[in-house]
Structure formats: structure tokens, C-alpha cells
Amino acid sequence: MPAIDLTADDVTAVAIYVHSVLATARAQGAPPPGPPVSLNVLVGDAAAGEAYFNAKCGSCHSTAGDLQGIASRVPDPMQLQNLWVGGGRGGTAAGGRGVEPEDNGPPGRRTVTASVTPATGPPVRGRLDRIDDFTVTLILADGTRRTFRRVGDVPTIQINDPLAVHRTLLSTYTDSDMHNVTAFLMTVK
Fold first, then answer.
1. Domain range annotation of the chain
2. 65 partner at 20 to 30 Å CA-CA among 13, 45, 117, 150?
3. Does an H or E element contain 73, and which?
4. Where are the beta strands (DSSP E) in 11-103?
């Protein structure tokens, strides 16, 4: 193939053309062209959602307690569904304030904590920062980090994860469960 001699102006023209094509292209995963599609996630059966809630969620949550007025605080059904399916993580509620603290943020009811009992010495308790097959790191009450080396079952580690039930349920939810519970929660004004 013969060599092609391009001038700086030719290269600039090609670059401008490529950029103009990319400017009109849609990103990977973007919805198809056309008018925006409005999804309605509020298609469930509120009575079935209430039954599911009472069976699976009612031992920890209450519509007269922690979830009182949830539909007023999170009026968008899609945002509410994302909030409860994620175990309390859903960005912000109306007004731009956070709904729930993140895992392992400032100490609170959703903080994952651990108690580490070394082979010798008293147990050490703190907020779980990291755990793998080789180490476990806690953030102590004074803000310092303490890392323990793990060898087999030593040290003994007990983890308290308030969202463990949510993580377990996440793999069992059906589409109907999610839509039904969302329909029920939208009635909790």
C-alpha cells in the first residue's frame, strides 16, 4: 500500500470530523433514541407487600417507628424502591438531606462493628475497617486503627453487621416482592 502524505490541515479536518460524529453518538448503555421513557415501578399489590413486609421486615422495622412517614419523606416510588432494596442506602430524600448513614461511616445504627479476641489479652472492640484472610483492622473509639494478623481461627472475630439481613434478602427478592413492598411503603404517609 502506498504511503499517504497528510498535511496538518488534513489531520485537523479528520479530527474535527471524528469529534462531530462522536458528539452525536450515544454512550454505551444509553437508552435508545427517542422521547424519554417514564418507568412506573408502582405496579405492585400493596396488600401482598404488607404481608411480605410483616414476614421479612417487621421484626426490625415498623411503619409506626423508623419507617413512619417514609412515603412523605421519599415521595418518588423509584427512589423509595432503591432505598429499601439497598437496605437504607438511596442517596437523598426530598430536600437534599441524607436518608440513612452509609455503612462504616460515623458510628451509628448501621455501623459494622467487630470484637477481636487475640490469643492472649482482652477483646478489642471497634468499627470494622477491613477484613480479609490475613488481617482484620478496627477503628477504635479514639479514632486510631488497630490491625490484627489472622492465622487460621486466631484471633477470634465476632462481626456485628446490622445490614447482614438486607444483604441476604437481596439475593432472594423477586420482581414481584420488590414491586409489592414498594406499593405498600408508598401507602405509609
1. 46-103+165-185, 113-160
2. 45
3. helix 70-73
4. none
